[in-house]
Design goal:
- 2 copies of one chain form a homodimer.
- By secondary structure, chain A is an alpha/beta fold.
- Chain A has a single domain, classed as TIM Barrel, CATH 3.20.20.70.
- The first copy, chain A, is 27% helix and 21% strand.
- The first copy, chain A, contains 6 helices and 9 strands; from the N terminus they run E-E-E-H-E-H-E-E-H-E-H-E-H-E-H.
- In chain A, strands 3-1-2-4-5-6-7-8-9 form a 9-stranded mixed sheet.
- In chain A, strand 7, helix 4 and strand 8 form a beta-alpha-beta unit.
- The radius of gyration of chain A is 17 Å and the shape is globular.
- Chain A starts with 6 loop residues before the first strand and ends in a 6-residue tail after the last helix.
- Chains A and B meet through strand 1, helix 5, strand 9 and helix 6 of A and strand 1, helix 5, strand 9 and helix 6 of B.
- Chains A, B: Its EC number is 4.3.99.3.
- Chains A, B: It catalyses: 6-carboxy-5,6,7,8-tetrahydropterin + H(+) = 7-carboxy-7-carbaguanine + NH4(+).
């Protein structure tokens, strides 16, 4: 048996609360994987995506990753959220196996472009297909493979970031493709430079617009949630 | 058979999103019942509690209540949240029966001082025992009766508003009494006058404090959520 290949890790931080989506408010340690097959124009995690940051990504064995989660959480089980970048371009099965053996719960957020058998080991699989404003294109066959790979997970949900009316129309069509997935919509945050402060009023306005265009327009399917961490902490990393 | 007694209704509004707790972000029409057996010193809904507002509470038959929910929702099923005041001092069984027959889902939020058989008909029962800062005292026997009455509900959760360290210690003890109930904590909002604007930074600071004192201190049980509607819309009614 050979040693597992090291993982490229942009950051591991927490415990803090999950700021968005299905697990909003839940105590979480985040593992942010380095590297991504997408380049969304509004990416808020370029430090984990763009290879310009590659030398800041630590090569870590699954054991080293797990030891860091244990250290941060004081050995007390909580939810571990694996995000990125796209964590599905790497193999997190060994990390998940270690954590589950110790009673930790796992969530993973990925765009749904690469299916992994370990999706089925998760408690929560969040698939975030990227709408037109991202300038990326979704491969729906690959997405369906991800849904299938997550069949053993506790639950799989779909989360879509919405910047404009075109994104919203696209989200309705995406939901029609996968009505079996609970849908979460999140207003996009156009200010992603951590050096610049966030305007909470502008974020509130985007949230209001999205609620008006969905709930207010009689479409009651999606849950609409802002990025709490941006509303409350601003754009700083590691929170 | 006699006609059901009219309900005292402070307001019916929506659809908007649920701003707090287990259903945060979900499309909801709110039925706010008038009247309460508590007088929490920081009550944010005195217009539905204090009898000074009594003449603003409309006496409505269950059918009239339901017709208004239908009108607001355009007849499209969504979640109906019954709050107050304390809705459990009135009989909402006929409203729930009408709505469930048409595919609507029901949530109810009550402090847990009065148990009702119709708790078992709900999709989500939110029991919100009031911590010491409220200056109210919880009758834990009555609370346990509420938990028992909700056994048939889709789920029952506990939500506690936290103003200070004493409230937080109390919440830990409350959770120890009912570890079977998923726990949600919410920072208290000391500014409850709808005529005064909310300071979003102060709300953010209260949220940060609560996250530090729970998640940051290694207590990973509760989900910590702010009142989104206050963060985003301010204290205005009917949103």
């Amino acid at each position: 048996m050979t040693a597992p290949r090291p993982l490229r890790i942009a950051e591991i931080f927490g415990p803090t609360i999950q700021g968005e989506g299905a697990l909003i408010g839940e105590a979480t340690v985040f593992i942010r994987a380095g590297g991504c097959d997408y380049r969304c124009v509004w990416c808020d995690s370029l430090h984990a995506v763009d290879s310009a940051w590659r030398e800041t990504w630590a090569p870590m064995t699954p054991k080293a990753v797990w030891d860091e989660v244990l250290r941060l959480s004081g050995g007390r089980p909580l939810t571990v959220s694996i995000s990125g970048g796209n964590p599905a371009i790497q193999d997190f099965a060994p990390v998940i196996a270690r954590g589950k053996a110790e009673g930790y719960r796992f969530a993973c957020e990925t765009q749904g472009s690469v299916a992994r058998p370990w999706f089925g080991d998760l408690d929560t699989l969040v698939l975030s297909p990227k709408p037109p404003s991202s300038k990326e294109t979704v491969d729906w066959k690959a997405f369906a493979d991800c849904v299938a790979a997550g069949a053993g997970a506790g639950r799989t949900v779909m989360k879509i970031v919405i910047f404009d009316a075109a994104d919203l129309a696209w989200a309705r069509a995406a939901h029609a493709r996968h009505p079996e997935l609970p849908l979460y919509l999140q207003p996009g945050n156009p200010e992603v430079d951590p050096e610049r402060s966030v305007d909470p009023q502008a974020l509130a306005d985007r949230m209001l617009w999205l609620v008006e265009q969905t709930t207010g327009a009689g479409w009651f399917v999606p849950r609409i949630l802002p990025q709490l961490h941006v509303l409350i902490w601003g754009n700083r990393r590691g929170v």
